[in-house]
Amino acid sequence: IKTILKSDEGVKSLAGKKILITAGGTRESIDPVRYIGNKSSGKMGIALADAAYSIGANVLLVSPVPCERKYKVILVESAQEMQEVIESEFDKEDALIMAAAVSDFRPINISRQKIKKKNEDITIELTKNPDIIEILGRTKREDQIIIGFSAESEEIEKNALEKLTKKKIDLIVANDITVPEIGFGSDENAVII
Ligand code: C5P
To answer: Is the pTM of this model over 0.85?
Structure first.
């Protein structure tokens, strides 16, 4: 990103382009105080959104991580909320970058009251969330570009390539989450595109 910014200094190479970027981990409510989440900090998606904005793009950031920016930010919580926003906005966009870590599952029932602590184990039944990028990959227009991310702990290239094909997207960014220096929450990253 730094390289792009440096080489594009003063050049608005994304002027006139509309880009929707997602960042951070979705939160799937269990009850009014608890949720199932993940370790995504949102740094990658927010850095991409800042970079795209700085070279002229009309950016829309959709994220569960609050941040104040000059471009439009829509705060969401769950995967379903993220999906709703993306599906209503994507038609107007030239590109989508899904840097968010979307929860693959959500509790079937969200308790309206805080679940009471008892002296026994509890079971939370989960159901599958929709794969947002895959739905859009299937229905996108020819002129729209979709970029996905692939956090891998093994067989990085192979797994990322499989996702690229399965989700019918244009580009995939794969990174090795087992390397602590470039893992979750880190300011540095090393990826294969
Ligand atoms: O299959 P996997 O979850 O590893 O794929 C990662 C890519 O798919 C990311 O770009 C992520 O944002 C997207 N994704 C999605 N909806 C899901 C799960 C992942 O759009 N339910």
So the answer is: yes
Pocket probe mutation, ligand 1, options 98, 134, 150, 155, max atoms within 8 Å of Cβ: 98
User: CA nearest 25: which of 15, 40, 43, 46?
Assistant: 40
- CA–CA distance, 19 with 15 (Å, rounded to integer): 11
Cβ density class 49-61: b for 16+ within 10 Å, e for less: bbbbbbbebbbbb
SS3 content of the chain, % helix, strand, coil (to 5): 30, 25, 50
Task: Choose among 79, 5, 56, 45: nearest CA to 173.
Answer: 45
Q: Does 163 have pLDDT greater than 90?
A: yes
Specify the pLDDT at position 185: 79
Which residue, 165, 129, 164, is CA-closest to 148? Answer: 164
Distance CA 1, CA 99 (A): 14
Whether residue 100 has its Cβ less than 6 Å from ligand 1: yes
